[in-house]
Design a protein that fits this description.
Elements (H helix, E strand, L loop, with lengths): L4 E6 L3 H10 L4 E7 L3 H8 L7 E3 L2 H6 L5 E4 L6 H10 L3 E5 L6 H14 L3 E4 L6 H11 L6 E9 L18 H16 L5 E9 L18 H4 L6 E8 L4 E7 L7 E8 L3 E3 L4 E6 L2 E6 L8 H15 L7 H20 L3 E2 L1
Parallel strand pairs: 1-2, 1-4, 2-3, 4-5, 5-6, 7-10
Antiparallel strand pairs: 7-11, 8-9, 8-15, 9-10, 11-12, 12-13, 13-14
Length: 345
């Protein structure tokens, strides 16, 4: 029987959710944690079944022989430096969304990971959710025909992160934090068409004024004056073949909170929440409510697939290259918003 894959978790924010996913798989063993705050590591270490090594220096962690793979989960600006260090040390790597804080480092990481031959994967909780996977299965069976248009939206009422300045400084922002989920899942459901042109709008209407922070709380004093990215972004992406995707992301708004995806196909359409398929049968419209079968939790599903790829050579369903293409679309939309004109990829 093969030995468990030894996993290091970097970043005790989203890293804890992903770490719990690995804990549920007997083929994985968490052997190391890394964070600048030792108390956060010690808190999560109490959930683990055996003692682990604790690191505050990611370079020392990546050079260690105590792990086979590294999960990268700090703020966006640190994804590429940490993942690159892991790849250089021959470690398999899984990165939380988005891949990077900008396009150039994202490209460097993908090139290095692919050249090294290590397993490389994005952790995408929307793409791997029960509802999105079920729609993907229906699409692969031809239910929708040609998906020629989609809408994707992620809206919070008061949800600007107020626990780390990395979220609001350059390289952060609502679109890279939340919009990436809606964009990635919708693009995947459309069959991952090649993006060509983008027209976007973005800005910060709440954060710099000290409003719209998490759960209507007042932010730390230094947050509003250091706000340097979007708290909303929206746009239209045109793909090869003429299909299009409208995408929106709002960290704060005077609207109802929602995460939605709508698909428009030549044979049927669909809505993510509540999960519904719309079609016409024998000349009569049908609205079909669907309750997808409940499988493992999304973090367990992501972790299990990563272990499948590392141990058994299963083709990765969400490689870093997918994250790079999504990054290209995100950065193109934000560039378009900044210059007020269409952007060509």
């Amino acid at each position: 029987m093969a030995e468990p894959v030894r996993i290091a978790i970097v970043g005790m924010g989203i890293g804890k959710d992903n770490g719990r996913g690995f804990l549920a798989d007997p083929r994985a063993r968490i052997t190391a944690l890394c964070d600048l705050d030792e108390s956060r590591m010690k808190g999560f270490a109490k959930e683990l079944p055996e003692p682990v090594a604790l690191f505050t220096d990611y370079k020392a962690l990546c050079a260690s022989r105590e792990m086979d793979a590294v999960f990268v989960g700090p703020p966006n600006q640190w994804h590429v430096p940490i993942a690159l260090e892991a790849v250089r040390n021959g470690k398999h790597v899984m990165v939380t969304k988005p891949l990077a804080d900008s396009l150039a480092p994202a490209r460097r990481l993908v090139e290095a990971a692919e050249a090294s031959g290590v397993v490389n994967m994005m952790s995408l909780s929307a793409r791997f959710s029960d509802e999105v996977r079920h729609l993907g299965m229906l699409g692969s069976q031809g239910m929708f025909g040609d998906i020629y248009y989609a809408r994707a939206r992620s809206v919070r009422r008061s949800g600007i992160p107020n626990w780390n300045l990395g979220f609001v400084q350059k390289g952060g922002g609502a679109f890279r934090d939340m919009g990436v989920h809606a964009l990635d899942a919708a693009w995947w459901l459309m069959g991952m068409p090649t993006p060509r042109r983008i027209l976007g709008a973005a800005g910060a209407r709440f954060g710099p004024r000290g409003r719209g922070y998490w759960d209507f709380a007042a932010p730390p004093e230094d947050f509003p004056r250091q706000y340097a990215e979007d708290d909303y972004a929206c746009g239209m992406i045109l793909f090869d073949g003429g299909s299009a995707l409208q995408v929106e992301s709002h960290w704060a708004s005077h609207q109802t909170e929602e995460f939605s995806i709508e698909l428009f196909g030549t044979e049927a359409g669909a809505r993510l929440h509540p999960l519904t398929v719309f079609r016409t049968e024998n000349g009569a419209p049908q609205d079909i409510a669907i309750t997808p079968p409940k499988g493992r939790g999304v973090w367990e599903r992501i972790a299990s697939h990563f272990i499948d790829c590392v141990r058994d050579g299963v083709p990765c369903q969400a490689p870093l290259r997918h994250g790079l293409i999504v990054q290209e679309m995100m950065e193109g939309l934000l560039r378009s918003a900044k210059k007020g004109a269409e952007e060509t990829l």
